Amino acid sequence: MQIGGSGEMKPAVIMLLLTGIGNTLFYIKIALAGYPLHPNHPAAYRDLQQAATWADGWMGLMAIVGGIGVLLGWDWGRLAGIAAAAALIHMGFLDVAFHLQHGMYKSLDPMMLVMIVVDLWAFGAGTMMLVLLWRGR
Fold it and tell me: Residue 61 burial (CB < 10 Å; 0-12/13-18/19+)?
């Protein structure tokens, strides 16, 4: 694959880099703020966010490494991207399950609206990345 990847890979590269960079910035922000709770969120939500930092950090790293690797045409870039996409989908399912279990969709505060967008991205972009990266092998 040439530098920049094929035209088919460019959406995957963009989604991987947006996912990795966005995830990294989000966790830096909430970690520096001490994992703040919103008034309607259960105390367990802080525990979830703190625990997810490590798994989401790995997913973000794989997304950045995968995006750069695919962009540069390195074979392992696709593998890292597939790992990131699968982890992103898994994160989406964990988030939705937790939010449903704790009734957090009942009050659609600004943070929950952001989480809905994040989870839609996890399912949509994660699936699209898997399809593009697998098909491009």
Answer: middle
Query: Is 70 inside a domain boundary?
Result: yes
DSSP 100: H
**DSSP string covering 26-92:** HHHHHHHTT-PPPTTS-THHHHHHHHHHHHHHHHHHHHHHHHHHHHTT-HHHHHHHHHHHHHHHHHH
Q: Under DSSP, is residue 53 helix (H, G, I), strand (E, B) or coil?
A: helix
User: What's the domain count of the chain?
Assistant: 1
- Please write the tens of the pLDDT for every residue from 47-94: 888 888 899 999 999 999 999 999 999 989 999 999 999 999 999 999
pTM comes to 0.88
Asked if 36 contacts 30 with a C-beta cutoff of 8 angstroms, the reply is yes
Is 4 part of a structural domain of the chain?
no
